[in-house]
Amino acid sequence: MRNTILEILRAGRDQYISGEEIADKLGVSRTAVWKHIKEMRAQGYDIESHARSGYRLRETPDALLAGEIRHGLKTKIIGQEIICHEEIDSTNNEAKRLARQGAKEGTVVVAESQTGGKGRLERQFFSPQGKGIWFSVILRPRFLPQDAPKCTLMAAVAVARAMMEFGLQPGIKWPNDLLYDNKKLVGILTEMSAEMDGINYIVIGTGINVNIEPSDFPEDIREVATSLSIMKGEALPRVSFFQSVLQALDDLYVRVQCEGFAPVLEEWRKYNITLGQEVKVIGVRDGEVYTGKAVDIDEDGALLVDTSKGRQRVLAGDVSIRPQRGKW
Amino acid sequence: MRNTILEILRAGRDQYISGEEIADKLGVSRTAVWKHIKEMRAQGYDIESHARSGYRLRETPDALLAGEIRHGLKTKIIGQEIICHEEIDSTNNEAKRLARQGAKEGTVVVAESQTGGKGRLERQFFSPQGKGIWFSVILRPRFLPQDAPKCTLMAAVAVARAMMEFGLQPGIKWPNDLLYDNKKLVGILTEMSAEMDGINYIVIGTGINVNIEPSDFPEDIREVATSLSIMKGEALPRVSFFQSVLQALDDLYVRVQCEGFAPVLEEWRKYNITLGQEVKVIGVRDGEVYTGKAVDIDEDGALLVDTSKGRQRVLAGDVSIRPQRGKW
User: Fold this and answer.
1) SS3 A187
2) pLDDT higher at A318 or A240
3) CATH number of the structural domain spanning residue A261
4) Are both A204 and A102 inside the same structural domain?
5) What confidence tier does A98 reach under pLDDT thresholds 50, 70, 90?
6) Does A326 have pLDDT greater than 70?
7) Per-residue pLDDT tens for A240-293?
8) For the ranges A40-54, A198-212, B116-130, B234-248, which has the lowest average pLDDT?
9) Cross-chain Cβ contact A195/B142 below 8 Å
10) What pTM value is reported for the model?
11) Which residues of A touch B315 (CB under 8 A)?
12) Residue B184: CB partners within 8 Å, gap ≥ 6?
């Protein structure tokens, strides 16, 4: 209902539309319309009202509301269903719950804040109210579980594309961290439920630090985290940035389903800041540490590192890049 | 409580033990002991009772009861926790529920019957009351999701070992079907929940057709399913067969965690009936069909098939073996 009111107001953005006209179109009373307008104002919509002329939409809020995110979105799979929460434990947990209940491919769960945002390996993920884009996407791909890790590279490329559109030069550290000034802008956590013959669902969780000031970060992550607004020197519109990310992800995913991951890996190489660098790898399971030169990713998305003991193929691990003129 | 009574009776299997002695050891009344004895009889325990002499255990039932399965089991990881159900929707579903709630590695869920037993690719799995071993094991391995498919080969090898102990020659069709007379004895369904950096849990579901007569099978699967009792010409003790499987699985899994999957793949080759044969492969996702000679499995457990168009690497698919002197 509210989305329809919004559409009517958007359609005649610069002119007043009478409450009666809206009420007629919706088949409800003018009082009902007024109630919805009041609630929309509470969500941040700037709606003028005149006793005689009716309502006029002056400005939409930069809030992660389904109606705003969907407005103008031209995706084929991603975001046909968008579920917005003001606060949630973790969008990945919610997306997994929905996926188990049969939510369809492309469903997006987004929240203004997460109380238990999580990163890789049960690490916490800082996700403050209204300052980022904390979201998860449910995919039900036809490829095998072995291909799933490349989804994480695909998600990083999607965010990189959006950054380009907003005039920001992306830098992806293998496998999927987007960095600026050697600090983290974006975190991605991909989870899956699979049989050996196929994937039940993949949930790609992405946390984008959009408009976070240095002082907003808790002290313990201030040295390692940054935001798009810090990088750009001004705040970014969250809704349109989010739309760009969803659009890119949709485009990449549709292509992957037809052509496989080769184009994604190629684009990943374009945005990466890892290859050619001296890197330190810490195995996530065994804690083994080694250094070497990152030379490429292979067709599985694994990082190839030339060490003094020969070439290592890194499937999972914490990789850090040697600072220029720096020591480990 | 009941397990303790059982232990006391077992310890003195050939002699009577007075109700008073049992009651004293447990710190309960003789009436309480009597109630438990009555319930154990209902479960199938043959317990003699004499007004003067007390109780004597004559025979234990061949029922999938935790006390029976655990008795004499020497596993390190598998089956420290065994949860038995008379009837359940699917042991895999229950094991996944438990795994999500944090159940520990090695937990076994077993049922006398499944109402919604499932095989690969959402296929139904026939699991009649008291005639098979329908169970699932929760693993929390340290290896990466990419290695998970080999767990399914490991489970097939575990059942093969148990068959050998019971004088039955196993034949594994890639990846994990155990066949006799070209009909299925055992089905295995492996599911997992994972992040890209590691596995949250793997559930290996195994359905073993133990004492099923040809006429027990529904008509639509009579031509493709068989049982260990049909193969052996007599009924098998389910509890001890199950113990052999758990013991073998434990042994294999402990070894995999130390040495990787190479020994499992080697043993799989020993029991397999696929390699060297002409096979037909139907891709499970794309439905693509091709034929060729199965030559080996590679280190990922994938089946290598030499076709007229060169070598194919099969990661998932339905494989059938060309009957001798037969046509497709």
Assistant:
1) strand
2) A240
3) 3.30.930.10
4) yes
5) very high
6) no
7) 999 999 999 999 999 999 999 999 999 999 999 999 999 999 987 677 898 999
8) B116-130
9) no
10) 0.87
11) 144, 146
12) B177, B178, B209, B224, B225, B226
A156 in the same domain as A200: yes
**Strand segments (E) across chain B:** 46-50, 54-59, 82-88, 108-114, 132-139, 172-173, 177-180, 183-195, 198-209, 278-282, 289-297, 303-307, 310-314, 318-321
Write the ipTM. Answer: 0.83
Counted domains in chain A? 3
Is B133 within the bounds of a domain?
yes
CA angle (A147, B260, B277) in 5-degree steps: 70
Average pLDDT for B114-130: 84
Residues of chain A in Cβ contact (below 8 Å) with chain B: 120-121, 142-146, 148-149, 152, 175, 189-198, 200, 284-286, 300, 315-316
Min Cα distance A155 → chain B (Å) is 13
What is the reported pLDDT for A136?
98
Looking at the structure, do residues A90 and A226 belong to the same domain, yes or no? Answer: yes
- Chain B positions touching A101 (Cβ under 8 A) are none
| CB-CB under 8 Å, B197 with A120 | yes
Predicted confidence (pLDDT) per residue in B54-82, tens digit: 999 988 888 899 989 999 999 999 999 99
Say which residue the tokens 């077993």 belong to.
B110
Asked, for residue A327, whether it belongs to a domain, the answer is no
Q: What is the CATH number of the domain that holds B309?
A: 2.30.30.100
Q: Hey, of B197, B284, B299, B313, which one would you mutate to test binding to chain A, going by the most A CBs within 10 A of its CB?
A: B197
DSSP secondary structure code for residue A323 in this structure: P
pLDDT of residue A11: 84
Classified as helix, coil or strand, B173 is strand
Residue B101: count of CB within 10 angstroms of its CB: 7
A197, B316: Cβ pair inside 8 Å? yes
Residues A157, A195: one domain? Answer: yes
Residues B165, B27 within the same domain: no
In a domain, B226, yes or no: yes
Contact state of A120 with B148 under an 8 Å Cβ cutoff: no
Residue A287 exposed, middle or buried by CB count within 10 Å (0-12, 13-18, 19+): exposed
Average pLDDT over residues B199-222: 94
Domain boundary among B59, B76, B93: B59
Give the closest of B193, B196, B284 to A198, CB-based.
B284
Q: Give chain A positions within 8 Å (CB) of B200.
A: 191
Give A-chain residues touching B142 at CB under 8 angstroms: 285-286
- Tell whether A328 is covered by a domain: no
Domain ranges, residue B30? 2-59
